């Protein structure tokens, strides 16, 4: 990684980051082509390598950057006074939407990376995956009010189901070249409302 990348203005940095996120999210590590990334970023392949060295270094930089950025935004924007599980999840969803307005493919990339099996990068990303999942799970389990759930539903079960739904929802978007971030947000919030009616006691 060439530190000169960080001297570029943010618009140029984000153009390269978003181009690489999109290509890796749509194709995975092995099939992603640096020619396509440089074309999407409107720079030469030589300049891309000048900043990032090679495809693997670019991929791992994107992964570290994406994980750190998401965690930073979650900490900064999360309402830690909230105890309602579904309001916490809706708050998290809104933060994700805010993030995607800047980096549309960041969560598609992270999900793709979570299941990445290419030997060139799999060991490098494994520890990040575990730590990120543990951090997010611990926060929800600590803050959420368990008393609102039906007697036959635990908070742990609800959290697993919401995470599975979120992953499945994102997978349906993985192969789309274009999507509406706000429409995605509305769709997933509707899913959360449906799960809330299923999991919570009658008010």
UniProtKB/TrEMBL annotation:
Transmembrane feature ranges: none
Highest taxon of the lineage: Bacteria
Keyword Acetylation: no
GO MF terms held by the record: DNA binding
Pfam families: TetR_N (PF00440)
Domain HTH tetR-type: 10-70
The name this protein goes by in its record: TetR family transcriptional regulator
Native species: Paenibacillus montaniterrae
